Amino acid sequence: YNSALGPYKGGLRFHPSVNLSILKFLGFEQILKNSLTTLPMGGGKGGSDFDPKGKSDNEVMRFCQSFMTELQRHVGADTDVPAGDIGVGAREIGYLYGQYKRLRNEFTGVLTGKNVKWGGSFIRPEATGYGAVYFLEEMCKDN
């Protein structure tokens, strides 16, 4: 959506409700959220109306590989660093990451939310919860 402050940063969403207008809104919202961090990141959002719910691992893997085959020329550490969102968890990130690695023979800084053995964060599963707690603590200080 906007990379004025730095690389695009936002989530990938796989859900039947995904369409262009939703992605535009979420991309704009991501700019606002990222600007609050004061880190040099823009905002973006991507996705598909593919629904991984109820699909086999093979179906999800094939979709993620096809998706990354098209997406790979638009992502990278200095361009766009997607993360998971609704419908895109550790399994999907793993498939996306594996395909990117196969296609580009490069793998630094391309996706967040990866498994620890592929360079992901040890604290990733708890990160959102800790963010909520830190926010609540800050709000309580002012009251």
Describe this structure in words.
The protein is mainly α and 143 residues long. It has one domain (8-141): Rossmann fold (3-Layer(aba) Sandwich), CATH 3.40.50. It is 45% helix and 10% strand. It has a three-stranded parallel sheet with strand order 2-1-3. 30% of the residues are buried.
List keywords for this structure.
about 140 residues; mainly alpha; globular; 4 helices; 3 strands; three-stranded parallel β-sheet; Rossmann fold; about 45% helix
Could you give me the name of the CATH homologous superfamily? Leucine Dehydrogenase, chain A, domain 1
Q: What is the string of helix and strand elements? A: EHEHEHH
Number of helices: 4
How many separate domains? 1
Q: How many distinct beta strands? A: 3
Instruction: Tell me what the CATH architecture is.
Output: 3-Layer(aba) Sandwich
- Largest sheet, if any? 3 strands, parallel
Would you kindly provide a brief summary of this structure?
This protein is mostly helical and 143 residues long.
